[in-house]
Structures are given as structure tokens and as C-alpha cells.
Amino acid sequence: MKEKIAVIGGGSWGTALAVVLNNNGYNVYLRDISEKRVKEINEEHVNSYLSGIELPKELIATTSLEEAVKGAKAVVVVVPSHIVRTVSKELKGLLDKDTVIVTASKGIEEESHLRMSEVIKEELDDKFSDKIVALSGPSHAEEVILNHPTTVVVANKNKELAQQVQNMFMSDSFRVYTNPDIIGVELGGAVKNIIAIAAGISDGLDFGDNALAALITRGITEIKRLGVAMGAESVTFSGLTGLGDLIVTCASEHSRNRRLGFKIGSGKSLEEALSEMEMVAEGVRTAKAVYNLSHKLDIEMPIVDQMYKILFENKDPKLVVSDLMLRGAKYEIESIAMEKEW
Ligand SMILES: NC(=O)C1=CN([C@@H]2O[C@H](COP(=O)(O)OP(=O)(O)OC[C@H]3O[C@@H](n4cnc5c(N)ncnc54)[C@H](O)[C@@H]3O)[C@@H](O)[C@H]2O)C=CC1
Ligand SMILES: O=C(CO)COP(=O)(O)O
């Protein structure tokens, strides 16, 4: 008999992950709060967020959380990050004691500044504390659903648990690596969304490729600085969930965050840009969380600072450029200068 897996959140990413799991031979239940989405998946076998691509007929969508998770070997949480706490509260008491929880949402909670695995851990019973695995990496749903080659990382301190989840998702078009550094993996996936909005703004202003390369490279420097201060391994940020995900989100036509930035760079206000978005652009809320967190920890994040000012203080994006370019002169890589007493 097929083992059951529940995916909570039937947006573009939840649906793509559900299809990966279905193709790997699991009995997949996809839970979404929207009756319209559940109906289109069950009756028309499509998700309108994924341009009408035909979904496997065996995929079962439901609005009932209980029906989705009952008896499931694993529960994959993939709702927008600001909803992860609500879903986790609802999951409490519904899970079998051996259930593994996978978080595939990318964000930092606005008030608490917690990562998604930490939010879930706070809400579930203690017996699940060590059973939460993060899944992240450069992986737009629009390409995963077409079986285009994609690589991701699953992270947990417990190697066997990470390998269990690796085996669950691994296929000939979806390659899964493991990493014990869950802090780095989750932070890379969350913070890159802010830099992707900046990349979209830059493109909206028609600044070209030099500016994009600068944003990606200086962006990863900021992400790494914050990550290391929070206990992550520096080298994780050179991997798939750091630089890899930053590149794809800053450059891809599929990126929701880049798209939102492009609208702002083309002269729209945040409210106008958001009203035109169907799907979630996580970088907006994450910008607020990371701006406050970096100031609390005294971590220098100039691009994040300027993004906060554009998004929440109505600063004109054109003025941001000179503020970034004319900051005090710096070393490129401070650690080299220090090491060489330069
Ligand atoms: N779209 C993508 O290619 C990728 C997205 N992600 C991350 O995955 C998360 C979800 O993103 P998307 O799927 O793009 O979002 P989306 O905006 O496409 O869909 C979100 C879905 O969540 C549903 N929902 C809202 N509240 C719910 C609840 N309480 N229970 C169940 N479902 C609920 C909505 O009805 C909607 O269908 C985000 O954190 C995003 O950063 C990560 C990698 C790739
Ligand atoms: O995280 C993602 C790709 O890895 C998705 O990014 P967007 O939400 O910007 O589309």
C-alpha cells in the first residue's frame, strides 16, 4: 500500500512538491484553504497558478486539515510564511507521533524574527521538536512542474532524518542534497527574497547587468553577515540555498519577488504593485523583519536598509542608488584586509 504524505498549502510551490511526491509513488493529500483551488485540482486537475499544466489525477485536494494529515508519514508545510504559525497551531494534536514535518516556506516571522522551523517547533508538542526538516533551494514551481532539472537541499542536524526526507523527494529531475546547517539553509532562502525585490527594481529602472551582478554579489555578503551572526555556517551561503537561490530569484522571469520589484522600479507604489500580484511575494514582510533584526544585532545590511526605506518609507528608488554608491569607501572582503593587516 502507498504511504501517505500531506502537503499543506496548494499554491504553486505546494502543488509542484505534491506532484514530485506523487510521481515518487506516495499517496498525496494537498490541503488548501481555498475551495476554488481544491475544486479545480480535484475536478479539472489543474492549478491556475501553474498555467493550466495537467496534474496527476491521483492527487487528492481537500480543505480539511484533518483529512489531509490523518495517518500521514510526513507533513509538508508550504503556506506563505505569515500563515505558518496558524497552520502549526491547527496541526497540534492531529499528527501521529512518528510524523516528520518538512517546512518549504521561505520567510522570517515579522514579530518574533523566528525561522519557519522555529515557528513550527514553538507550536507543536515537544515530541516533534527534533523532527522538523527545512527544504530550500533554487526551485521555481513553474519549472519543477515541467520536470526541468532542479536541485534543492534538506536540512536538519539529524543526518538520518535529513536522508529520510532526501529519499522521499529525490527523483531523476529533482535532486536533493542534505546539509546539517538548518539555520543557514532557512536564512538563505528567506533573505534572498529582499535582494530579489531590489534586482527587480533595478531592472525596472533599466540599470542593466552590472547593477544586477553587484546586487547579487553584495547581497550574498549581507545575507552571510547576518547568517553567521545568527549561528549559520558561512560556507552554506555559497551553496544552493544561498548563492544558488539568490541567483535564480534575482534573474528569473518566474520570480514573484523580482516581479514585484520591477513594478516598483517602473514607478508603481508598493500598494499598487501588491494589488496586481496573485501569489505571495515573501520579500516584503521579510524586509521588515530583517531590517529590525539587523538593527537589533548591529549587522550592516545597506541593501536591506534601502529596501526597507523604499517599501515602507516611500523613498524614491532613484535616490537609493546614490545613497548606496556614495556610502563610505570600503574593503571588498574585510576578512582579507584584517588577516593581512592591510
Ligand atoms: N512558488 C515557488 O516557486 C516557490 C515558493 N516557495 C515558498 O513557498 C511558500 C508558498 O509559496 P507559493 O506556493 O508560491 O504561494 P502561493 O501564493 O502560490 O499560494 C499560497 C497558497 O496557500 C493557501 N493557503 C492560505 N492559507 C492556508 C491555510 N491556512 N491552509 C492551507 N492553505 C492555505 C492559499 O489558498 C494559496 O493557494 C512561500 O513561502 C514561498 O516563498 C519556495 C520555493 C519556490
Ligand atoms: O524561492 C523561490 C525560488 O527558489 C521562489 O521565489 P519567488 O517567490 O520570488 O518566486
Describe this structure in words.
This protein is of the alpha/beta class. The chain folds into 2 domains: 177 residues, Rossmann fold (3-Layer(aba) Sandwich); 157 residues, Orthogonal Bundle (N-(1-d-carboxylethyl)-l-norvaline Dehydrogenase, domain 2). 50% of the residues lie in helices and 11% in strands. It contains 16 helices and 8 strands. The chain has an 8-stranded mixed sheet with strand order 3-2-1-4-5-6-7-8, with helices on both faces. It comes from Orenia marismortui. Pathway: Membrane lipid metabolism; glycerophospholipid metabolism.
Task: Provide a brief overview of the structure.
The chain contains 16 helices and eight strands. With 342 residues, it is α/β, with parallel strands linked by helices. It has two domains: 4-180, Rossmann fold (3-Layer(aba) Sandwich); 183-339, N-(1-d-carboxylethyl)-l-norvaline Dehydrogenase, domain 2 (Orthogonal Bundle), CATH 1.10.1040.10.
Give keywords.
6PGD_dom2; binds 1,4-dihydronicotinamide adenine dinucleotide; 16 helices; 50% helix; 342 residues; Rossmann fold; eight-stranded mixed sheet; globular; single chain; binds 1,3-dihydroxyacetonephosphate; N-(1-d-carboxylethyl)-l-norvaline Dehydrogenase, domain 2; NAD binding; alpha/beta
